[in-house]
Amino acid sequence: MQLDTITELLNIQNYKAVEVTRDRYQNIYVTLEQTEDTLPVCSGCGKVHGTPVHSRVEVVVEDLRISGRRVFLLVTKRKAKCVEDNSIRVEEINWITERFTDRFVEQVYRLTSITTNQEAGWFLGLDDEKVYRIDKRKLEELALEKLDPVPTPKHMSVDEVAWQKWHKYVTNVVDVDQRKVIWNHQGRGKVNLDKFFRSLGKENCEKIEAVASDGAKGYLSSIEQYARNALIVLDHFHIKKYLNDAVDTVRKEELKRARQQNNGELSAILHCNKRFILMQNKVTNKKQNLLEKLASLNERVYQAMLLKEQFLSIYTDPKTAGRALKEWIIAAIKSGISAFEELGKKFFRKRHYVLNYFLCKITTAISEGINNKIKRLSRMAYGYRNVHYFLLKIHQHCGLLNPRLST
Question: What is the pLDDT of residue 236?
């Protein structure tokens, strides 16, 4: 009765439990035997051969735990001559991957999607290297199934994130509608994004309706070359960053000048501890007080703040956005502030991309959020040496290989 119960519990087709033992660590060992004699599948060519059995070998395969105890299955594998290369090959059993059952591999894959390989290995009683090997192989199999061919997005965003020091980046393409990473590659710039579009093919590239980008020249060039029907949207979160950077540049210049002139009051207002108040998009009481003081103490910083606020007002009314953007560009170029003169020229070159936001309101906000998850993933593992594995882990945590999508 015990063996029948274990056979039913294991639920392995064409196999039954014939003996159960335990070792001194209370690990359970179950000896399995085939219920029907079938022809072996060659592990070399993957075909079924009718050649006589050369010999038999017993292998130990780890399975899911029972009542908290590790379970090992003792399975007999047959060896036979392969007719393709005349060598002796051990048979292949479809529910065994290396020395683990497929459901055990599935559990490793699910655990590594929520914690580190080291912690998963501690929980399962495996070393880090085994967990890495199991996880990597499973992710590679899923990548062939779900990411080849690359899914075609309707709306997408593209951004890069650093994965190591010394300017080592990974480019991620995100499906905005699914909010998932659908493609990534080591490096950044036009060359990398070209690889994505070429993997889609010309016909699928024409199906892309809009692309959100930070305005990098390489990305824009690639999108214009391949996704000719797509609207290019210059992300307004990056635009706000450009404006904040310009204001901060002016603040630093005037702070340096105020210190040289021993102007303590102005130095206190422009000090870095007031920087975040000045950079706020929302007008608070503290920010209003600072602006009133700046209006009387330093016209240049006050003018930079007004230019920033004036630009943000462009997004309030789509009907007047084109005219308002034109007026702002003229005001910025004529302001006499070098940081805003340069920014005005930049926005003039990319004015169409700025206004495309009103035609298709997508941003790279999802990409930025995913970038934060990727940085956290890298910190949890204390970095990755194998970039190919790191790219797969990004898909596992932020893309279509996440096990939560199949549950």
Answer: 82
Q: Determine the CATH number of domain 155-235+363-382.
A: 3.30.420.10
Separation between Cα atoms, residue 283 and residue 44, nearest integer Å: 70
Q: Which residues are registered as beta bridge partners of 22?
A: 28
- CA pair distance 353, 304, nearest whole angstrom: 23
Q: End-to-end alpha-carbon separation of the chain, Å?
A: 34
Task: Calculate the alpha carbon distances from 396 to 46, 126, 195, 406 in Å.
Answer: 29, 21, 21, 12
Q: With beta carbons less than 8 A apart as the criterion, state whether 17 and 34 touch.
A: no
- If one compares 265 and 279, the residue with the highest pLDDT of the two is 265
Mean pLDDT of 147-161: 93
Tokens read off for 49: 């051969």
- Residue 305 has which token pair? 């703040």
pTM listed for this prediction: 0.85
The b/e string for 157-184 (b: 16+ C-beta within 10 A; e otherwise) is bbbbbebeeeeebbbbbbbbebebbbbb
Contacts with 126 (C-beta within 8 Å, 6 or more apart), sequence order: 108, 120
CB 196 within 8 A of CB 173: yes
Taking residues 211-227, report their average pLDDT: 92
| Integer Cα distance of 102 and 94 in angstroms | 9
Asked if omega into 149 is within 30° of 0 (cis), the reply is yes
Q: How does pLDDT run across 9-23, given as a tens digit for each residue?
A: 899 999 999 999 999
For 126, 183, 393, the CA distances from 379, given in Å and listed in that order, are 22, 22, 13
Q: Is the dihedral of CA 228, 233, 238, 242 positive or negative?
A: positive
Q: How far apart are CA 389 and CA 279, in angstroms?
A: 39
- Three-state DSSP at 394 gives helix
Structure tokens at 352: 């169409």
